[in-house]
Amino acid sequence: MSGNSIGKLFTLTTFGESHGPALGAIIDGCPPGIPLSEADLQHDLDRRKPGTSRHTTQRREADEVKILSGVFEGRTTGTSIGLLIENTDQRSKDYSEIQYTYRPAHADYVYDQKYGFRDYRGGGRSSARETAMRVAAGAIAKKVLAARGIEIRGYLSQLGPIAIDPDRFDWAEVDQNPFFSPDKQAAEQMAEYMDALRKEGNSVGAKISVVASGVPVGLGEPIFDRLDAELAHALMSINAVKGVEIGDGFAVVSQKGTEHRDEMTPDGFLSNHAGGILGGISTGQEIIAHIALKPTSSMRLPGRSINQQGEAVEVITKGRHDPCVGIRATPIAEAMMAITLLDHLLRHRGQNADVVPPCPPLL
Amino acid sequence: MSGNSIGKLFTLTTFGESHGPALGAIIDGCPPGIPLSEADLQHDLDRRKPGTSRHTTQRREADEVKILSGVFEGRTTGTSIGLLIENTDQRSKDYSEIQYTYRPAHADYVYDQKYGFRDYRGGGRSSARETAMRVAAGAIAKKVLAARGIEIRGYLSQLGPIAIDPDRFDWAEVDQNPFFSPDKQAAEQMAEYMDALRKEGNSVGAKISVVASGVPVGLGEPIFDRLDAELAHALMSINAVKGVEIGDGFAVVSQKGTEHRDEMTPDGFLSNHAGGILGGISTGQEIIAHIALKPTSSMRLPGRSINQQGEAVEVITKGRHDPCVGIRATPIAEAMMAITLLDHLLRHRGQNADVVPPCPPLL
Amino acid sequence: MSGNSIGKLFTLTTFGESHGPALGAIIDGCPPGIPLSEADLQHDLDRRKPGTSRHTTQRREADEVKILSGVFEGRTTGTSIGLLIENTDQRSKDYSEIQYTYRPAHADYVYDQKYGFRDYRGGGRSSARETAMRVAAGAIAKKVLAARGIEIRGYLSQLGPIAIDPDRFDWAEVDQNPFFSPDKQAAEQMAEYMDALRKEGNSVGAKISVVASGVPVGLGEPIFDRLDAELAHALMSINAVKGVEIGDGFAVVSQKGTEHRDEMTPDGFLSNHAGGILGGISTGQEIIAHIALKPTSSMRLPGRSINQQGEAVEVITKGRHDPCVGIRATPIAEAMMAITLLDHLLRHRGQNADVVPPCPPLL
Amino acid sequence: MSGNSIGKLFTLTTFGESHGPALGAIIDGCPPGIPLSEADLQHDLDRRKPGTSRHTTQRREADEVKILSGVFEGRTTGTSIGLLIENTDQRSKDYSEIQYTYRPAHADYVYDQKYGFRDYRGGGRSSARETAMRVAAGAIAKKVLAARGIEIRGYLSQLGPIAIDPDRFDWAEVDQNPFFSPDKQAAEQMAEYMDALRKEGNSVGAKISVVASGVPVGLGEPIFDRLDAELAHALMSINAVKGVEIGDGFAVVSQKGTEHRDEMTPDGFLSNHAGGILGGISTGQEIIAHIALKPTSSMRLPGRSINQQGEAVEVITKGRHDPCVGIRATPIAEAMMAITLLDHLLRHRGQNADVVPPCPPLL
């Protein structure tokens, strides 16, 4: 119920600032008996970790996660799971200049207005550092879901003006380049584009897609906790996200009914414009979501802003930053999808475990 | 916490099926002392009411709402407000054909899978009838917000292929045509387009925009209950919504950082690409959101589907239905925006009422 | 999350004032497929209904409940269930005298302070009328639980100075007298005592006990949503309750460890001092709870108080009232026990449905 | 919403097992700008710490708490506060004998049934170690409340057969003896009694009382989140609690209305049988609650039980344990009272900050 918590049965609560001693999380409601180790979490954290390529933030974090509770003899106990990542590489001095300045397109101004003051170092709580905990919790959720045949994979659909070509789509490419691009050719173009962008001192946006397969029919709690509404919540809560689509998303605006509807036959659905969710409930088809990430707000190019006294100032953000946040968002989006799906799997089971549908599921 | 509830401090819980005796709602957490009457609610309900033009469902509902509690001597008491609308015009016989059939792109199939069976008449709980209660609750929220100078207005941005022209934008036009279009010329094109669509027996999607002005800075509860995440949740929970954008939405994907950022001066922000929300917190600028609505699933044009036995069938939906859901969604989107903003206004006040920011708000 | 809501998966939200047009409730999360009719609810409501004996309030209410949604062809659909009871016998004129007066030991004063004003007629929202909805919702929960072999029964343990004699305990007596007393002899003494009390114009307290049998082991969510903590919450939320005990309750203060502990053998537990809950989780034994109800605040005997201007006044409550609230609380306590147990049954199932314990349950 | 979380606006979520690496907590919703340091928390933790007298567990824990986030330059930021206490003294070997045995009156059996297995060392998650985090969070709440003139103090009312004498009540005595007894003479009797108990190898129960003064009128959210109901929840959630009373508690059963009611005069209330709460809302008087704690389950005296195979066994708990849990519960009960009051203070302010009551509060 608090702002730092998400989920109803499977819940994630987090803490931690960019330059504080540590980031942490408490995961509650995880089914017991699931094999779990720090290595399971570390894998996904490493995918997200800054410093892995020249295209991401040059801040080197070990991002080593420790499991402090909720796991015994290698399996989840069903009690709350505590996670901790110690911050080891903060370089406070990079940010001291902007202690009294509001960086444009950052949360500096609104945090000061909301709370009266803020931890100004590196964005404090508003920093993208907190996403490490989302990824760790997501890794737990993914493990539970995987045991049920549910798989979640994400990829970069578009970086600035460069869109992937669906005809060159190859899942195997996604982890082979620093962009999570399933299109090798596009990845090469993106690398060049990013180099130019870095020289320019600018940044650009991105579009990420996440796909969940093997999801059983029936997940989602109408009318307000529809699965798509909860996914939208979870995905929009990621730093820098400005749009969420399910299935065909905004393309449906100009679609006719006959074009949009996913007809059914005894052998299955004939299409998936709906993105796997109808009436707020999963159909058993792949769940497909897309998010739009705005260009990073930290740039070397100067911007006009004000300081705490309300005086006009020019702001230049030196230090280490991502020229494209999108590059790191793929594992985060996967994590949020996983957390939401697991929560709904448990909620559906809680209320409806005795249900016998009139016919077998289509998929 | 349950699926039929939304909000943390200001909460809305609803019930009611398309063909049941009544729709109802309980609104909790409304600040006391607010003047409120049934007329306040009826105004917004009438804007949503079917049968008001040839372009909407020909089902005639009185949609007369009664306030059953929580108001005394014309003012809210602070206790829970019960609302009731009796269903008077259902025409059950229109739907009996599809009792054992799953209409494509409807929730029939998923409800049977999730719950084991369903009220098949008119979509049951999955019907858009339930939105009447959202609008009624939204009217209450709007009233409370209006007393604080916060105004919420929506409009149709696009109907199928017809987009409004920003240069012809006029708020006064919105309530002058059945489309909520702020562009009179576009409204005329839409009318023709809809007539053709109705003859064809098809449907089309729409894009709705909602704007909240006068919102104070500071609303939103990072990191998971960010204001944009909660708006996305509330808006995506509306029947037929497949996408949500805040501010520039998916346009940010190809924007550069220098283009996207809203610079600040002592006289205010220089732009509003962010749509009024930064770091998940309101900036004091207009909050701008857009939603994409899929084409109505009920159509006269036949579609392939299956029945409860898993046999292939052809489905034709006779009876009354909307060729474009978007025409009615504007008041619903306004309502969800209002409910979310009021909830956050109360939550922010609860935690931070003592805060004195270091400088006055920019707006 | 709001004050008028209880439960996480199986939730109850209510509205309604003593002298408003109606009382209502929304029950969410009820498993689908359960046979349910208005008669099921009416039975428990009639047990609670005022006017059934000379010992209870002389206000005659039909207390006829209507089910407005969530039930189709005689079974629950899994969607939200709306309930309505219209208030038919209010007699506003009985209370107009105390419009500006604060009755001692009532909520008049605190409601005016909290909300700024109140519906003064008959206690408004603070009136015990709202408990009708708890009983109706409890009847639904009881039905779901009964299908799983869980039974909930309550009785009056003590009325003023008259305690029941455990040696004369007979469940069959409980519904044979207006007190819910399992001890016939005590019931006769209570009747005499109550007649004297009524003549005196005074009131007295009571102690109610509730027993749930057939509860499976494993319900309860440590550490904060322990089953006993949630039962305490649900029971203490009943109007006039000032104390809650589980099992031996306050008797444990002077018990030694060897006396208190419920030893186990291969044939079962040897005692039940714990009242069926250990470590916040059900053991499979009978769950036993007791509540203490304060004497009714409405009395003919004058009391000193103040009015809205802060002046000293004398208050005499005329009109119809209960000389002992306890007489009506038994079905309410049963209802709150049922609602809590069902919520936990679903929550436990949601998270732990796959668990295989190392040995069969003891019971 | 999860079992390991409590509170709506001011929330506490915890993790940590008796023999895990650490205990932790996340506190969310704390108002910003409150001065806070580790020393503030350590003070209350030291009051609770085992090993401080011969009468408590001989397990020596540093119980040193670290604040990992949510505090900047000595003040709370309004973002989530992470706390950590590392476990340093566990002595696993003390518990290995009972790995496959169910200790009577412990949670061993129910945890195995609920989750399929458990961390058997020292009670795992069911151990009283977790209360350290409640106390730490309570210290934060107390600080915020103290700034508003609200003070919370607890004391031991009764240990086994030894009750304090109200005529010898002295608040200054409470922190002068290891029992939190306000009656010096009783404390001496308790010491002798405890020595005998320890020799016997047995344990005994206790009754703790908590008093909150300076509480403003108006806290509590009827009808389900009444302040007394939420206090009952919070207090009953403490390990070993079997009963909760507000004000006169179970004594009200035999009180007449004229005896129980707290009459009002222009100078204030004439008594406080209600314990500071009426209609579920604080009156402004002292809030008084009492809890009953059962005798410690860990004893040297053998008890009959079963093992995981269902065979009869005899259980002797060696190692370090509390012969009377009550001795340590006083700071824990204070903490739960503080957490609940702060949550309600924020909730009330959120909804009702604009309320102007018709007259000034009585107190």
From TrEMBL, chains A, B, C, D:
Biological-process GO terms, alphabetical: amino acid biosynthetic process; aromatic amino acid family biosynthetic process; chorismate biosynthetic process
GO molecular function: chorismate synthase activity; FMN binding
CDD domains: Chorismate_synthase
Key word Amino-acid biosynthesis present: yes
Pfam name, any one: Chorismate_synt
Cofactor: FMNH2
Positions that bind NADP(+): 48, 54
Residues holding FMN: 125-127, 239-240, 279, 294-298, 320
Origin: domain of life: Bacteria
Classification via InterPro entries: Chorismate_synth, Chorismate_synth_AroC_sf, Chorismate_synthase_CS
Subunit annotation: Homotetramer.
Family the entry assigns: Belongs to the chorismate synthase family.
Cited function: This reaction introduces a second double bond into the aromatic ring system.
Name this protein carries in UniProt: Chorismate synthase
Species for this entry: Nitrincola tapanii
